[in-house]
Specification:
It is built from 24 helices and 37 strands. The strands form eleven sheets. Strands 19-18-32-31-35-34-33-37 form an eight-stranded mixed beta sheet. It has a four-stranded parallel beta sheet with strand order 3-2-4-5. The longest helix is centred in the middle third of the chain and has 21 residues. It is globular and about 90 Å long. The two termini are 50 Å apart.
């Protein structure tokens, strides 16, 4: 992000120059020629960066690395089997990005053999090819591998390029024909030098935003000119033809390699921005060799400390996924991939790590990183596990981090040339504060061994002393203190369901509605229930100038807007400090204003149809929030059905603009226990403890009950409040939004930190409810009503 800012801020200095680059490079007027010449100069700079020349390689600009790979997939001269020659083979390392493996989608329909190759097979199955085997077979085959794994940071030998081309390595040594190599350099090129003169891969896809952070949406495919003549292209777009006829199937491609494959006009302003990107890179770093040493040093430093950290009982804090111990920058990149474990050796889900990291302004990547092969290898996940996880509801990119206690992905920390040692220390302190059972201990034997493999032996003691309060304790390898079995997830004595609530009363103590999503609560003592939940709860939401829904994570000052509903006058009042109160009609469909247009919005992945509430409300919100905003409400004719809870047998239920379910309920006993835990954690600090009312407000529940035992609601399946029957639809996963002070809008780390620590990484609080039956059309909920619960099972 810092570098992106540098590039963007650099534009005013070149504004006059940029204005000249507005001519389409396919024309011949002065501005177009200047654009064309500048784009060609950038091509030369790219080749120079990789130590090659236009005589050897061509640069084809694409929309990204994936588009470059797709171009190879669609233009490589694949051959089906014939009577005299075998079919082409598409071979790929299993540790490859999805976009590489996806080439299989093109080749499978062409009779081409797809062969996944494990990393250990390349050299283990290598053999010298006899001259008699070097026949005249010209069948083209393609082998794809990454210069650096985007999962673990492992660097694969660049010598594989010539080894495959010469048929000295597996799988090329086992198959006749001509072998070509695609070297995926997207991850590698961001922090490492690549010499294409020494390692002349046939195809090299690149992503410039991975190298520089800017511009996005721009990549390139570097193609060896000796290989280029083999490529076949079916579609032809503007700028790619030497000549063609509209009335006859006649087309002759342009002889220039880049022009032939760049359909239409390239994004020339983004291409020109690469000039400034290369300038900044060399000015700030002095070259890729220095970038490699700097970033590897940061990764190694973090690896040494993280792999040596232990809980108070001696259990390791992290399970690191790496093929090396970060001894050599030629074998390991600036990537650290891991899962954290608790003091009992259980994996902490990556989504919980991600949520807490955001409180510390640390942005990590989680999941499988579009590399299923490496993810399976390191996590020990079988093919059947992947299929079973899908059936259990886990898909790529979601936050389902554990299935049956086993991880579905991991956490990745990546370093760039703008990263510093302070960043490493901040990350390690975050891990210690949030996930290490105190006192912090260190596996000193392992740390000393790791330090002996590097010359920078003096870099870690300062942080070690800080992490362990000056008392790092020696832990013998393999000797961990015995731990007591977990009786229950709250750290207390096991309590039977009967002992928790049998024969004892529970009551509804508070009712809150939130008329405008993410704005302040409106507390009532009794309130009507409608088919969508509490009447007018989350009936409205605020969107920014781009139509994107605002919440307190994006705009915490929303909590300072206090909506109030007056049913007798059919009005919604908007109030905020320093602003005049305005009113909005609750129902305005019979007399639609010209500005009350129907529009489409996105909410929690759902498309919702909404109605704009007019210019007065928009102006009021825009003035208070300091950005263009509008107030919209769900259209009365639109039905949005609930998705969560189907695995619990919850039937499809209509929703308002809520995130997950019709109601959110919390237990006062759970709030009390959490407050005591927060207070005990803050006794040694200057932080003012959260009072009960403020803590309740952080969880933004609709219903608060006087439960008897903390977190007993987690095990309920049904409950009855008065005459209204509810079904529990699942637990409510929490994020950094509960850190927003509902009185000031300030962002804090509590209660998310304490909740995660107390619940052993399970950051849930409260349960979702849907009503099953309503007591007639005038059903209401009232404070003081008895609550009856039923346990799951």
């Amino acid at each position: 992000p810092k570098f992106t800012q540098l590039i963007v801020e650099g534009y005013p200095k070149h504004l006059t120059q940029v204005k000249q680059f507005k001519g389409n490079p396919h024309s011949h007027n002065p501005s177009s020629r200047l654009t064309h010449d500048t784009v060609e100069h950038v091509r030369y700079r790219i080749l120079q960066h990789f130590n090659t020349t236009p005589d050897k390689y061509s640069v084809i600009f694409t929309s990204g690395c994936t588009a470059a790979l797709k171009l190879v997939a669609e233009s490589f001269p694949w051959r089906p089997p014939t009577a005299t020659e075998p079919a082409s083979q598409f071979c790929y390392l299993t540790d490859n990005h999805t976009s590489v493996v996806g080439i299989r989608g093109v080749t499978s329909a062409l009779g081409v053999v797809s062969l996944p190759v494990s990393p250990k097979e390349i050299e283990a199955r290598a053999r010298d090819v006899a001259q008699s085997e070097c026949s005249s077979c010209q069948t083209p085959h393609l082998f794809c591998y990454p210069a650096q794994s985007n999962f673990s940071g492992r660097k694969y030998s660049l010598g594989y390029v010539r080894g495959i081309q010469a048929r000295k390595l597996y799988p090329a040594c086992d198959s006749q024909g001509r072998w070509f190599v695609l070297l995926d350099a997207a991850s590698f090129a961001s922090c490492s030098p690549l010499d294409l003169q020494e390692h002349p891969a046939d195809f090299v896809p690149l992503s410039f935003y991975k190298m520089f952070g800017f511009p996005t949406g721009l990549g390139a495919l570097l193609v060896r000119n000796d290989t280029a003549a083999l490529l076949r292209k079916a579609y032809f777009g503007g700028g790619t033809a030497a000549a063609y006829l509209a009335g006859e199937n006649y087309y002759v491609p342009t002889p220039n390699m880049a022009n032939r494959f760049e359909d239409g006009t390239v994004s020339f302003l983004d291409v020109i921005a690469l000039n400034h990107s290369f300038d900044a890179l060399h000015k700030l770093t002095g070259g890729m060799d220095k970038v490699q040493l700097h970033t590897f040093g940061l990764a190694r430093y973090t690896y040494m400390l993280l792999s040596s950290l232990c809980h108070g009982n001696g259990q390791p804090v992290a399970q690191i996924y790496s093929d090396s111990e970060f001894e050599n920058p030629s074998m390991q990149g600036a990537i650290l991939n891991f899962n954290l474990t608790d003091c009992h050796g259980q994996i902490v889900g990556y989504s919980q790590v991600d949520k807490l990291a955001s409180l510390f302004n640390i942005h990590v990547r989680t999941g499988c990183f579009c590399n299923t092969g490496a993810c399976q290898l390191f996590l020990g996940t079988t093919n059947q596990d992947v299929k079973s996880n899908l059936q259990a509801g886990h898909v790529c990119g979601d936050d389902v981090d554990l299935v049956d206690g086993r991880p579905t992905g991991s956490v990745r920390v990546s370093f760039g040339y703008m990263s510093t040692f302070q960043d490493c220390q901040n990350f390690l302190n975050f891990v210690v504060e949030c996930f290490v059972e105190k006192p912090v201990e260190v596996d000193q034997v392992k740390l000393d061994r790791l330090k002996s493999n590097t010359s920078s032996k003096g870099s870690s003691p300062c942080l070690l002393t800080m992490l362990t309060n000056g008392k790092p304790k020696h832990i013998d390898n393999g000797e961990h203190a015995a731990t007591e079995p977990v009786v229950n997830e709250y750290g207390g004595k096991a309590i039977t369901k009967e002992a928790k609530s049998l024969g004892k009363a529970q009551y509804l103590t508070n009712i809150y509605i939130y008329p405008i999503k993410s704005c302040a609560a409106f507390e009532v003592t009794d309130w009507p229930v409608c088919p969508l939940g509490l009447l007018h709860d989350r009936g409205w939401m605020v969107v920014n100038g781009n139509g994107v829904c605002l919440n307190q994570k994006r705009e915490p000052r929303l909590c300072l807007i206090h909506p109030q509903i007056y049913l007798p006058s059919n009005t919604l009042l908007l109030q905020a400090s320093g602003m005049d109160t305005i009113s909005v009609p609750l129902e305005n469909y019979n007399e639609p204003h010209q500005s009350h247009g129907v529009c489409q919005s996105k909410l929690c992945g759902d498309r919702v149809q909404t109605v704009d509430c007019g210019d007065e409300a928009a102006s009021w919100l825009s003035e208070f929030l300091g950005q263009p905003c509008r107030l919209i409400r769900q259209s009365p004719d639109f039905i949005r059905n609930m998705k969560k809870g189907h695995e619990k047998g919850v039937s499809s239920t209509a929703l308002s603009l809520v995130n997950e379910a019709q109601y959110l309920m919390i237990n006062h006993a759970s709030v009390d226990l959490l407050q005591r835990h927060i207070t005990s954690r803050q006794e040694s600090s200057d932080h003012q403890p959260l009072d009960i009312y403020e803590l309740v407000s952080r969880f933004r529940a609709n219903l608060v009950i006087s439960g008897l035992e903390p977190f007993e609601e987690d095990d309920w399946s049904h409950l009855i409040i008065g005459n209204t029957h509810f079904q529990v639809a699942g637990r409510c996963g929490r994020c950094q939004m509960i850190g927003v002070d509902q009185n000031t809008g300030a962002k804090t780390k509590e209660p998310l930190l304490s909740l995660s620590a107390y619940r052993k990484g399970k950051v849930t609080f409260g349960v979702y409810l849907v009503h099953q039956s309503l007591d007639g059309s005038n059903a209401t909920l009232s404070v003081g009503t008895p609550v009856m619960s039923q346990w799951s099972g």
